[in-house]
Design goal:
- InterPro entries: GAF-like_dom_sf, HTH_MetabolicPath_Reg, Tscrpt_reg_IclR_C, Tscrpt_reg_IclR_N, WH-like_DNA-bd_sf, WH_DNA-bd_sf.
- GO terms for molecular function: DNA binding; DNA-binding transcription factor activity.
- It holds the Pfam family HTH_IclR.
- Keywords: DNA-binding, Transcription, Transcription regulation.
- The structure is a single chain.
- The protein has 2 domains: about 60 residues, Winged helix-like DNA-binding domain superfamily/Winged helix DNA-binding domain (Arc Repressor Mutant, subunit A); about 170 residues, GAF domain (Beta-Lactamase).
- It has 9 helices and 8 strands.
- The strands form 2 sheets. A 6-stranded antiparallel sheet has the order 5-4-3-8-7-6.
- The two termini are about 30 Å apart.
- The N terminus is likely disordered.
Length: about 270
């Protein structure tokens, strides 16, 4: 059964969970609609991606333009993200103690072993890369950058994260993934996820290969005052997953232990 993990929520002293601000949630949903490959979106596209009505989207985009979070491009009748979004991303990275500790160690391991090393966190049913150092000897067709999203269900990063969820959260995620992947081989995918979760519980890591000739391994990292992070290593290779596991399990787990050891303890 998946292990439980700490959920970070803002609770008012002496009260239960604060009532959500629906307008704020919808505004954030509009911003989340913009992803790599979709630099500009119109009201109809935003409405389709968010499930909001066009009138609601129109009202929200106007507010986001006024705050600088969006820019309107009249020639295209579409919006693009504003510069403050980049500033916020930089502030997030700069303020992460995890990245400050992990990044130099990740770079050193990637260079020494000529492998790729990445760090990611979960967001919905996807994983978002915080950092990636790529020193694999063989050139891969994939280029990973900070902020890039990858599917949780298919990847070692995502499956390692799933292994940290409490039973209720894990089962809810499985139901959501089953609905999303219905008719696309969900049965086999679920078996792979269950095997990966068991591997994390037994060995501390899991292995996956969702891209041609790319094998990745991942292990979850738990820190005080931070959400679960997931560390991975990967290689572009003709070797099978077993050979990669034999070669990279020790470097992965030693790096994970070193990062956790150097993270400041909260008293």
């Amino acid at each position: 059964m998946p292990n439980s993990t700490v959920n970070i929520e803002r609770i008012k002293p002496g009260q239960g969970k604060a009532t959500p601000n629906r307008s704020l949630e919808r505004g954030i949903a509009v911003l989340r609609a913009f992803r790599a490959g979709a630099s500009m979106l119109g009201n109809s596209e935003i409405a389709e991606r968010t499930g909001l009505s066009r009138s609601t989207v129109s009202r929200l985009t106007q507010s986001l333009i006024e705050t600088g979070m969006l820019e309107y491009v009249p020639q295209c009748r579409a919006y693009r993200l504003g510069v403050p979004v980049l500033s916020m991303a930089h502030a997030m990275r700069d303020g992460s103690q995890v990245l400050r500790v992990a990044a130099p160690m990740m770079a050193e391991v990637a260079m020494r072993h000529k492998i790729n090393v990445g760090l990611a966190v979960a967001e919905g049913d996807e994983m978002i890369y915080l950092e990636s150092f790529r020193y694999n000897r063989r050139q891969s067709l994939r280029t990973v950058v900070s902020g890039q999203r990858i599917p949780m269900a298919l990847t070692s990063l995502g499956r390692a994260h799933l292994a940290t969820l409490a039973p209720e959260a894990f089962n809810a995620m499985m139901r959501a993934m089953a609905d999303k992947n219905r008719g696309r081989g969900w049965g086999e995918l679920r078996r792979e996820i269950d095997a990966a979760v068991s591997s994390v519980h037994e060995k501390g890591y899991c292995v996956a290969s969702w891209q041609p000739q790319v094998v990745a391994m991942a292990t979850p990292l738990r820190f005080d005052e931070y959400a679960v992070h997931v560390l991975n290593v990967s290689v572009s290779t003709h070797q099978d997953a077993g050979a990669v596991e034999a070669a990279l399990a020790k470097p992965l787990m030693e790096l994970a232990a070193a990062i956790q050891e150097r993270m400041p303890r909260v008293e």
